[in-house]
Amino acid sequence: MPYNLSPSTLKRFVSLFLFALCCILTGCANMYVDNGTREVPIAQYKKPVEPKPVQLLFEFQTKGTFNSRATNHLKDQVIEQVKTSGLFSVVDDKAVANGALLSITLNNVPVNDDAFSKGFVTGLTFGLAGSQVSDGYVCTVTYIKPQQPDAIVKLARHAIHTTIGASAAPSNGTKAENPEAAVRTMTRQVLSTAINALSQDPNFK
User: Fold this and answer.
1) Burial class (CB in 10 A: 0-12, 13-18, 19+), 95
2) Confidence of residue 163 (pLDDT cuts 50, 70, 90)
3) Number of Cα atoms under 13 Å in the Cβ half of residue 122
4) Residue 2 confidence (pLDDT)
5) pLDDT digit string, tens, across residues 71-108
6) For residue 74, which of 84, 92, 86, 61 has the smallest C-alpha distance?
7) Residue 79: closest CA among 54, 52, 108, 50
8) How far is CA 162 from CA 7, 28, 81, in A?
9) In this structure, is residue 13 part of a structural domain?
10) Which of 28, 54, 66, 141 has a CA positioned 20 to 30 A from the CA of residue 201?
11) Over the chain, what is the mean pLDDT?
12) What percentage of residues in the chain have a pLDDT greater than 90?
């Protein structure tokens, strides 16, 4: 069924298409990692006297829905970061003998979503020439020790800002070389914050 578009509507659609094409070809879309969440150095973690083995489960979500492609893309990085934290003697994605369970979820949500906005304070910069889109990320770390049903849960929040055709960069972000670098930097920083919070919990030993 054909659509009857007015000349003005058609012109607007064409303009939007050309603008999007221009952004793709010229690279005028830039990504910035929010400065509100910084990477916590490993030396700052409170390491247990006798680290225990742990089974690590990682899942990336988009608005609470499992995202297999993103999970597979970031899984090795997350596992390596947990291994180098020094908090565990063994880190494996399979069950370990007498080991605990560490579940890490990284959920990509809109910045105005309650799951993201509660407890997160940052100076988002709006009103730039062009447009800005901000993606929120909530990292949830859940640690369950053997024979102890009460889990230790820690949350950390982060954001990535994308500007299109903007004449100025957001004042609260650090420009990433490319989208890949932005996502990996965000993941490393938010995970370090959540892991540090876990290590500081008195019930984590």
Assistant:
1) exposed
2) confident
3) 27
4) 46
5) 999 999 999 999 999 999 999 999 888 889 999 999 99
6) 61
7) 54
8) 31, 10, 26
9) no
10) 66
11) 82
12) 60
Number of domains into which the chain is organized: 1
Query: What does the pLDDT look like over 31-82, one tens digit per residue?
Result: 999 999 999 999 999 999 999 999 999 999 999 999 999 999 999 999 999 9
Cβ count within 10 A of residue 137: 24
**Looking at the DSSP assignment, which residues form a beta bridge with residue 100?**
54
Strand partners, 153: 142
**Is residue 182 one of the residues assigned to a domain?**
yes
What is the domain-level CATH number for residue 91? 3.30.160
Q: Which residues 6+ apart lie within 8 Å of 157 measured at CB?
A: 36, 37, 116, 119, 120, 136, 137, 138, 139, 190
State both tokens at 110.
Answer: 């809109």
9 located within any domain: no
Which residues are within 8 A (CB) of 203 and not within 5 positions of it... i.e. 6 or more apart? Answer: 150, 152
More confident residue, 4 or 90: 90
For residue 76, give its domain range.
26-43+51-200
Residue 14 falls within a domain, yes or no? no
Q: Which two three-digit tokens encode residue 104? A: 């890490």
First to last CA, the chain: 66
| Model pTM score | 0.80
Run of H or E including 9: helix 7-26
